[in-house]
Queue: 4 jobs
Job 1
Amino acid sequence: MTMERASLFFHITLLATSVSGKFQVQSTDSRQVVEVGSDALLQCSLTPPLGPVGLKVHWFRSLYHSTVFLMKNGQEEKDQQSDEYAGRASLRNGTGSSDLTLLLRNVVLSDADTYHCFVEDIASGLYDEAVIQLAVIGTGSLPVMSIALKDGAVMVSFLTSDWFPKPEIHWKLHGVFVTADTSETISNQTNGLFTLESSILLKGPGQGYVYGAAQHPVTGRSTGFYVTISDEMFPRLSSWAYAFLFAFFLILGGAAFVFFAMKRQIAEKEALRTQNGELCSEVDWRKAVMNPAYIRFSPETAYPELSVTGDLLTLMNQPPPATPAQSDARFETERCCLGFPPFTDGCHYWEVEVGDGLEWAVGVASPHLQRKGDAYMFRPQALIWCIARFTDAFTALDTKESPLPVVGGTLEKVGVYLNLSGPRELHLYDSRSWDRLYSFTDVGQERERVLPFFWLGKNGGNLKLKSQNGGRNDNEIN
């Protein structure tokens, strides 16, 4: 065998080597602290080093389906990646390296979470993972200092922005911490960071140097300044000046009184207008509850392993007696079913009996939602607005998942209130106690149809709708 053939044989053998042996996924850091706008490196590596062939590398945060980066057999699968990480998440040394360190560019506050580096041998099913906590902070800008006269005293102030979490404020006089005659205001910026404005009032000469600073609660680093106030800064006013100031503030106080009196009247009118709107909404809700919509399951849309009873009021977690015909209306990827009739306006209420099933979802969806192809998440981005139960967890599947306030840990019947008469809203209730579980806004486009939506996991029971004589629109959903 020539040297060239020996080299070729070696590389082919190396690529074909199975990774089914034991391996470890390791990280040198259990917690990373990065600044907003910077890049984060979440370290992860394999021991022993292995090639990418035969491996599935899945970076996700908290929940398994919140995919940050996914690679199979050395190929990145971007269609499974969550939208917020598109173009920002990659492996530091590329997909051909055994170094699985995640590079996350331009970090934002919402990136703070627990990240999992999950590696699986596709052939054997063996897997291991490393977990890293990512904390995102804002270290604050350099303070802008100002000095002003106020009521015969000197007020020293500073303004600084881009902090997260909220900083701690310190003032010192002659090197001693003081809290008297100080004030601070912390406000939210549009990007989630905080702006801080603080001041100290110096009432007489001889104060010496002043130190003002903001200290970061995570890093412990302080950002501040020293300033010396000369005794000449403190004003000396004559009695005429005090008389003038008294008259000026008296007039100013009268103007302020008139202004706030007018403002209070405007606020009272606005409160009455708001109260009237709330009463109208309450009337619409009560009318809908007293005259519930007659909702039925659409068997033409049901997943092939789900069946609908003859009265169209029960969705059963079992296949129908005969194999259902394929159609564009039927779900082929997820275990879902739509209801009818559709709604475009008005207020509508119906109830769904979920029983003691461990996996289900109830809500509404657009008729344009995905029904075939790759798996997808139940989110408003996928034209689905719903709540769900996953074994012991009751969750609202909004843009960001939120736990539901289920009293007693059980939820046997869900009330669905769809309000399309104004702002398009969906409210879901525990119909036993009438406690509101969750509310969605901006449900679908204006004048667009909205359909009842249901999902039954493999561990779910049957879903039942309330029987009612009569009904509105009996058209099937296509």
Note: Helices lie at 3-16, 239-290.
Job 2
Amino acid sequence: MEHRDIVIVGGGMVGSALAAALAGNGLSICVLEREAPAPFDPEQDPDLRVSAISPASARFLAGI
């Protein structure tokens, strides 16, 4: 069994942001996701989901 300091369950916006924020701190980080993301297809219809990001979240994301 491999050792990880931190295991993040879910590689969506929040899990990915946490992994990025913790990167570079000398920690062994693993992000678990149920399924691999679908490959990008420029012919596919766009995803119409919308996310609102507060100014504080924008600053956090810019910092990582």
Note: The first helix runs from residue 13 to 22.
Job 3
Amino acid sequence: MPEPRGPAAKLLAGAVRVYQKYLSGLKMGSTCRFDPVCSTYALKAVSVHGAGKGGVLTAARLSKCGPWHPGGYDPVPNPGYWITETVK
């Protein structure tokens, strides 16, 4: 995974790492229905796309967390794209 560029991206990536290290372990087992898990998705999105677009992609991903969405494989889109088409 590339290093986040810019101070805002580094700040967001640091916040996600704090969540992963100190808060994620407080849950009883894995609760994310996506692959990769949401915190890993957030780190990659911010690292690849920067703070603005990576933050929007992460917010969109987190909005899918709920019983109304089946989950599954949902990778971070390649640079220059907003969505990733999944092959079924």
Note: Residues 38-63 form the longest helix (26 residues).
Job 4
Amino acid sequence: MASRSNKFQTTAFEAEDFAFEERVSLYMLLEDSQRAVKKKYLLHRLIFIAYISPELADKRDLGAHYEQLYQKLQQFYQGDGVTGLLLIYPSYVVHTIESSSDVLFSVLRDLRNMEEHRTLIVDPKILVMSHDIPNRLFQQWSYKVLKLPARTLVDKSHREPTEKLVSESLTLLLRLGTYLLRTPKSSKTPPDSILDKVPELIIPQDTIGDLLEREELLSSQKYLETYDSPLNIVMDSERVWPPSEHLGLI
């Protein structure tokens, strides 16, 4: 009887020795952190430029259009917050939007519709679509009508590469966003004093006008066509001659 008791104790002891310890992986920690903040989507950033339609009498109507659009999208895509900045120049716009992919592609489709009617925006070009960005650059969405002189004519004999102009423009926007991020949360329209303090962070009008003429940048229509079109992949077997179905006849 004693031997059976000792044997049982030994078996229980060995079971404790070989019991697996539950360990927490990095993936589990990330999953818990996302669940804690109720993160339901990846964050993306869209930046585009465009001409302002000559038919637009009051530039504030453009800001009102996007305010109404984002209110509707947030009702449809609940929890997908929209942040960013719309800069309205005398003849151009530079628009930065941060949200989910569903919201951003809804913005692109709205942009395509506006381009067809030509009442607010004309000939938009996509500067960048950044996927899965780690953090928001803006605290909220807002717009600003810039009080700048009209664009001056520049010498087009020397043109900078498109990649350089895009890189310089994105750098200025990111620096501007970082600057605004350090300021207290403001109203829908940022006070003039905030942006007036950093005129060097505003993309020059000549740069925007030059980029809008570059064929390398995709319009909203072309971008959506590329996104919505099926992906045709040519398999290696399709490059073989004669075709596989005729090999048995040779």
Note: The chain has eight helices and five strands.
